[in-house]
Amino acid sequence: MKKISVLLLMMLLAASLLVACGTKTEAENEPGEAGVAPSAAPAASPSAAPSRDPESAAETAETRVITDELGHDLTIPAKPVKVFAPYMEDSLVSLGVKPVAQWANGDAVQEYLQDKLGGVPGISFTGGLPPSPEAVLDLAPDLIILHTAHYAKDGVYEKYSKIAPTYVFNNAAGDLKGSITKLGELLGRPAEAELALQAHELKVKEAKAKLAPYVEGKKAALINFNGKGMYLIGGNYFGGYVLSQELGIGKSKLVETENSADVSLEIVPQIDADYIFTINYQGTGSAFIQELTGSPIWKSMPAAKAGHVYEVSDKYWTGSGLIAYGKIIDDVVRLLAHE
Q1: Which keywords describe this protein according to UniProt (predicted)?
Q2: Which of 68, 95, 114, 243 has its CA 20 to 30 A from that of 175?
Q3: Cα three-residue angle 186-196-323, rounded to 5 degrees
């Protein structure tokens, strides 16, 4: 009996030692704060995940490295909040983004966008010159986007890139659809970019159907009048792009291979267009309009004799973006298809 009691006691002691060893091993394997013994760490909730360096985790999740069209590598936020993209405001608005400042020529901003950009300060590009780095620094952007390589010249890129990551397009206006797709990528809004482009393509398709009876085999010309003179806008930019490349209306032989062509009374008879659209840029071309339209040469033009000369808005016919292009399409349908 005595031997049995001793044997039971020894078995109980052995079991106690095994439990103690197992408890210690589990405690040593529990995650704890770096440099802090597990026994000193506060109790974690059942859902708590193993800790990691919050700064490195945020950098991985919230930034991306990309290359712009000039070959610059830059690290940008995954979804920028404070964007400065002068003269790309139309495209920004199309994607639901309000910039920290908007392009201006002196005090004049792009008027047709002000229902969406009211309260956004203008920053002057008078003379085509980018604003000073000090003026941009005051905006505290987290991403700068330059729509043309011209804006990056003469050390501007180097100065701007010290303020914030700076992406440069070669010429965003020359490939609007491509630049909007890229903007969607840069701003973390690819779905918004795709939807905006799809909506615009539908608008173009519907407009072409309405215009077909009026423009088949016809040509259109767009003349811009300003303080320096008058010139034809070709089919690669602004309203000229919409007329020829989106709506499929033929263009004058004067701009078949050129982006623009100067206009004078001697050149007027060569403007082979059934429809002529005219722009008085910021009201500075009035004298030239009077000179041209008051001449017998102009009055003998087929478009003028048929009453197919239309003055259109300088606010968006010289704009570059889906909103401007949509307004131009509406004008053309109204004027030519009488809708």
Answers
A1: Signal, Transport
A2: 114
A3: 100
The CATH number of the domain where 103 resides is what?
Answer: 3.40.50.1980
Helix (H) or strand (E) holding 224: strand 219-226
Q: Which residues of 27-65 are buried (b: 16+ CB within 10 A; e: fewer)?
A: eeeeebeeeeeeeeeeeeeeeeeeeeeeeeeeeeeeeee
| Mean pLDDT score across all residues of the chain | 85
C-beta separation of 280 from 292 below 8 A? no
How many domains are there within the chain? 2
Asked whether residue 114 falls in the same domain as residue 222, the answer is no
> What is the structure's pLDDT at 62?
87
Give which of 122, 68, 116 is closest to 90, Cα–Cα.
Answer: 116
Whether 268 maps to a domain, the answer reads yes
Q: Are 100 and 139 in contact (CB under 8 A)?
A: yes
- Whether 4 maps to a domain, the answer reads no
Q: Are strands 275-280 and 309-312 parallel, antiparallel or unpaired?
A: parallel
Are 183 and 59 part of one and the same domain?
yes
What pLDDT, on a 0 to 100 scale, did the predictor assign at position 128? 82
Q: What is the DSSP string of 197-208?
A: HHHHHHHHHHHH
Helix axes 190-215, 176-186, angle to 10 degrees: 160
Least trusted range by pLDDT, from 18-27, 194-203, 219-228, 252-261: 18-27
Cα–Cα dist 157/231, whole Å? 32
Best CA proximity match to 103, nearest among 65, 91, 95, 180: 91
